[in-house]
Known about the structure:
By secondary structure, the protein is of the alpha/beta class.
Amino acid sequence: MCYIAYLGAHPHGSTPSTIDLETATDSHYNLLASILGSHEKAKEAIIYSYNIHINGFAALLEEQEAQDLAKKANVISVFLSKEHKLHTTRSWEFLGLQGNAMNTAWQKGRYGVNTIIANIDTGVWPESKSFSDEGIGPIPSKWLGGQVCQIDKLSASTKPPCNRKLIGARFFSKAFEAANGKLNSSQLTARDFVGHGTHTLSTSGGNFVPNANIFGNGNGTAKGGSPKARVAAYKVCWSQTDETKCYGADLLSAIDQAISDGVDVISISAGGEISVSPEQIFTDEVSIGSFHALSNNIVVVASAGNDGPEPGTVLNVAPWLFTVAASTIDRDFTSTLTLGNNDEYMFKFGATIKLLLSDYEVSGSSRGNNLSAYWGASLFVNLPPQKSFTLISSTDAKLANATFQDAQFCKPGTLDPAKVNGSVVICVREGKIRSVAEGEEALSAGASGMVLSNNNQSGNTVLAEPHVLSTTNTVNQVFKPNINEYYNSTKNATLIMSEAKTVLGIKPAPVMASFSSRGPNLVVPSILKPDITAPGVNILAAFSEAASASNLPSDTRRGFPFNVLQGTSMSCPHIAGVAGLLKTLHPNWSPAAIKSAIMTTASTRDNTNRAIRDAFDETLATPFAYGSGHVQPDLAMDPGLVYDISVSDYLNFLCASGYDQTLILALNSNKSFTCSKSFSITDLNYPSITLPNMKLSAVNVTRTVTNVGPPSTYIASVKLSGFKIVVVPNSLTFKKLGEKKTFQVIVQATSVTQRENYTFGELRWTDNGKHIVRSPIVARLD
């Protein structure tokens, strides 16, 4: 088994010499040799020596050997290298980034020029036009990664495919190979054979590419949030079948390398398992690596996970991580389902009605009270017009030996070709994100198409996916009962399906995606997670031309330069792209200041100016779904005030959280550090306030803001229903740039405060409307 031994930070500092690196690696061999009995055995066992910024190693050990190692005095933690899951054009216009208008985030942030964004994922398709270096200047001198471009086995005369845009590409496979066997030489490359890494990297830092589309849908100019940034790919996720695996030991090595290479932003669209243990912070590879990145002034952005809508499912929850949820944009790929024939139902596009369902506008056609046409999601065009298909439910088409539940989800080997007989099959989505296997089973049974209805957990988040059946339409929970009612009312159910159309201006948007993982934060309850939400539904971006559109092994379609994917994997690089703009605009800002600027300028309103809703059940979404709200890049460039946090502040937070002095010293490169006795866990200078275990006595929360705008006076307003809450002082006057002011928020329960329920409120600082600096407040009375 592959275990990681974490030892904290190196005493050699941030610029180690070759001797320093060798000394660090030798110390790892010596430490493990004290367990295994010899230096030679230690060398054989260690697959990674983290000798640059992160101090530790990954080794193949027996369980008892790992336990013995964990008892050593200078070892912080020893844990299994965990398997991490991937959390898989119009979106930037929806966020307000378009054209060359003055005072936009692109103009202010100079399109992210010379910021370096690292993407830790499945690699990169370097030939994608998104990584063209047209219009890009020389590689900045701060790039320390040299000319390492581990793409394929190239001859001496072949030029590597990296350039002034894609400035580096590396792969890390030792932990994957230890668990799954050796990869062949053609696989040992940073080239992306899955598409996920290409998609995420182009979303954060891809260049402008006109005429980007998938099957003719979404046609427009593809681009990243920082389109002139430099990008580097670090491949840690590998696929041998249709399953992609990422191992923590590989991921940690990639982070260590990215820090050494001099990147500014790291984007990680992956995460481990849900945990309720505070120790998880230092037994999780993303958390450990990101702390060391932060210590080197690097912003680390990570996906919140796709395990929603259940509460307490959010991942990547350390306070130094920037954790991103997923929501919709105002573009849909729509198709119309028409049920029945013209004798039973009239279908006419001109006879459109509006059906208001809890503030959701749904269009259809009707005759009398019968709603016969339903919008769904599809990517396919050039379908036969007005062709009527027989409709059959998967449970009616099941094989005799298949269970009802398996057939409902159209699992492999459940459908009877004799019963399907060219019909369109109704299947239920099994997965929360990727649900293309259902169509594969329907196709193998001879279906002409598929209607894929959402399961209960998917709610009303409708995903457009590149199914293997071109006649496929996905419908949400609103329409599912109507379709089932019609199907059960007749023995000869039929259906007409229109080709897909790209529709802009969808309202409301954003809506929180059902799959997006939710708070509360079970590992660090005093920190609200996720931090922010960004577009993560039906996102069009660059793709690997070696991958099939659906990623199914049976899918022979190849050569797609762009594809549509969903997940917090897609929302994460949106925030990385915005962070890149801020890094260009304010190169000396800390990761915490950049995070604060994005969080405190976020919006909790949709494009109808109503509160953001949850697609799962159509109720109002809460900060447990969207954190501070929906990102607004233009406002983030000029936040007015920021909540800054230093490494010392994080160390004091760990002290207040009960971590021992050995850990604190190790994180601080064994330099002396005295924990502040007055520091409370509520006092970490976070841009949100979370009080999860309040008693009847008042709680004083301390925050400090730094002025990053002109001289101004800010006035506070605060609300938290059921609690008495005041801000002292409630007015802050700043006379110069960089001036700091401290205030307290005093919160106390009252006679009307409900116990054991979370209450949501907010704190706002405003300077006559020029800036609104907003922080969510979450409180719960035990």
